[in-house]
Amino acid sequence: MMKTEGLGTEATRAGIITMLKNRQYIEVKKNQVYATDKGRVLIEAIGDKILASPEMTAKWEQRLREIGEGKASARQFMEQVKKMSSKIIEDAKEMSRHWDFTGLNVTSIKRTKSKSKIGKKIGKCPKCEGDIVDKGQFYGCTNYPKTKCNFTISKKILGKTISQANVKKLLVGEKTNVIKGFKKGEKIFDACLKYEKEREQLSFVFEK
Q1: Does pTM surpass 0.85?
Q2: Are 158 and 177 in contact (CB under 8 A)?
């Protein structure tokens, strides 16, 4: 898998971890990664079927690269995808009879956001010029399915909700308004946020 583009590198691992965190499948406490109840539900639902196979993902990435190089047939690949999709659906139907989410807070992962907000365009992606849209739990780039652009901004940072108005400022290189009440451990502080394009990360800006 290390030879397959898109898997096994430090950069892609960091992007995957960030995305899992933003979508609340994992949480990080004192540099330790833990699966949330939402993550455990997903793990239980998928089980050990082919959808969870890193080998399959590696093979797909390799085949897509071969198609891009003209060494493989896109039509044959899509036929294989259709067959596999049908198999995955049948597996899910069969497994659903035995799902057991006892002890997991299932109600906490139900969507409560207004559907009208999901998909709303917020601005341009600072990494690839794609569109940044509201994806429910975070703001993300619409180019991800095509280019794997993993730019995201979590809707909650250290306990504070990041508004669309502030995200718009971040996307054009401006700092946000002062956000009061960030909480890290026992420390509570006020700060602005700014996206550092060169480092590809958000940073806190403290007013004098």
Answers
A1: no
A2: no
